[in-house]
What does this fold into?
Amino acid sequence: MQFNQDDIEIGERLRSIREGMHMTREEFSEKVDITDSFLGQIERGERALSVRTLRKVVKYTGVSSDFLLFGKDTNNGTLQKINNILALNSENTSDFIYHIVLCSNDFCKKITEEIE
It folds into this structure.
């Protein structure tokens, strides 16, 4: 069986995203409403991502479809900043809020650009 290189790269990016979220295949597949075996096939490049599945993954993860499909981050690191904030392990809520304020300008600017 021959695999498409694009599908392999998409699968690798998807696996990286899932692992970055510290989720198992089973947990992630449940959240995006696909079977864990189908997710495994996508991650290995054995199956192509359908448009329906792409939309579910993008909606759940917040990662741009451009990044997932082409490896290009059109969000200028905004999503990474948000993920870093969400992953912040702080016992002090004020630290969390401080970090949100630091990136809020970038985030708000990006949202405004997408709406316009």
User: Anything to note?
Assistant: The longest helix spans residues 93-115. The chain has a mean pLDDT of 77. The chain has seven helices and no strands.
